[in-house]
Amino acid sequence: MLKRWILQPPDPSAITRLQAQLNLQPALLELLVKRGIEDLDTARSFFRPDPNTLHAPWLMKDMKKAVDRIERALQQNESILIYGDYDVDGTTSVASMYSFLRKHHARLDFYIPHRYREGYGLSQAGIDYAIQQHVQLIITLDCGIKSVELIQQAVDNGIDVIVCDHHLPDTLLPPAQAILNAKQPDCPYPFKELCGCGVGYKLMTALCERMQWPPAEADEYLDLLATAIAADIVSMSGENRVLTYLGLQKANQRPNIGIQALAKISGLTKTLHLQNLVFMIAPRVNAAGRMDDAKKAVHLFTADSEEAAMEYAKALHADNDERKQADRSITQEALRQIEANPDWKERVSTVVFHPDWHKGVVGIVASRLIEHHFRPTIVLTRSGDEASGSARSVPGFNLYEAIYACRDLLTRYGGHMAAAGMSLPLDKVDAFRDQFEKAVQHTLDRELLIPSIRVDAEIRVADIHQKLYEILRQMEPFGPENEPPVFLIRNVTDTGYSKIVKEDHLRFVVKQGNHRIAGIGFGLAKKSSLLLSGDPIDLVCHIEENNYQGNITLQIRVLDIRAAEPAR
Q1: pLDDT, tens digit, for every residue of 520-551?
Q2: In CATH, what is the architecture of 341-449?
Q3: How far apart are CA 144 and CA 165, in angstroms?
Q4: CATH 3.90.1640.30 is right for the domain spanning 57-316
């Protein structure tokens, strides 16, 4: 698939100013300037995240109200229910808050809604459970900001609610005792991009201050928080960067017993980096909710022994294996469905449907289909008497607006610019496919149908060395607003040692002048003729370590290649 390479020139005056303060090679200076780092002070805070820069939790609107209400619940031995969503952010939030309060309070329970029977966020079944169990206080985490009617129902039944959420509030807020959400228009908290687990952490730090508990009691869950920040794809800047940095230290020094069990079952014995943490935990936690019940993720993170944690880790691992199998088979079926309908190929959207597809993986399959057919995609399956499914967008296109334009055909819908979900009558699927296509055609900039790679800087093979890599590693943790650096290397040629490996991948060994570098390009076998022809090529890549049988070398992970542009 053709890709656009976007290399925006940096501000030369900013690079000159930074170079006067930092003695770094040009590519690194360009990387830093493009991340808004233009002087020594901002560079120092970027490379050395400082816990002292974290904001006081009391700056968050309603924090005092929340702490007052929890303190009263502790003093009067009230029944408290910790309620969170079924994804990584929700389950780590619940596990953290439940474990934190359990040290000081016995009348404590948690609730995770079932993905299919109850859906996202606060549910009727969850409120009914709280009423039946005579709960007196509900603390929601990663949900609740839009649950006006359900929280009113809780209040009408004598249950107070504290909402800890990070999703954008509507104009009408729920009738909660306290709402902790930095995105409220009148909330003075300076950092607006905390995830749900981050809001919960702020509440725990405030409780430690009020109750005079050791601050370490809140910090004990920083590794779970780091995982939530990365898995929820929130900004890796400001407080999130500091909290993730601290969480990675915790994961490598004194990991949560559940993280330890997942690392063992995944065969990870070396230092954990953020990618390890996310790819080890996120798919398994999400698979539990997709294939079975996400409560077992909370049980994993709150286990009292290594043996118990390992049993839950094995269960999550099995769910993930089942999810991967369903993902592969349904993706293949969906691709065959697209191939069987040639008229769909001219469309700017994809909508596929099969009544027997597993509802738990339709969102993943939509993402997989975009890798093959780069356009807004919806995957539907049968759910009861309706068709329901998930949608995924291409970067830059507002998917939610296109779905909203089809609302007359839908019974339920929700989501945001990049992802959404919907339900509709079974007999409306074909009509929905056509109406969605018209909505996308009406609003889509056709250039967005060409995937793009944003390049940070141009570099020479001779400049790829251990010192450079060590500085790149200090730029971690990576995530939105601090993406892993992408480099452009121009005019390299095959050494004769490059080859196709495992059918779909390319093993690179290329040279530029007298300098060589090895690397791997996953899924690039289709472009092998460009490399193996011997003609000069340009490539875009990450720089990484390759650990083969204990021998550690630097390599490039190639993202795309094309014929070299003529010399300028």
Answers
A1: 999 999 999 999 999 999 999 999 998 777 78
A2: Roll (3.10)
A3: 7
A4: yes
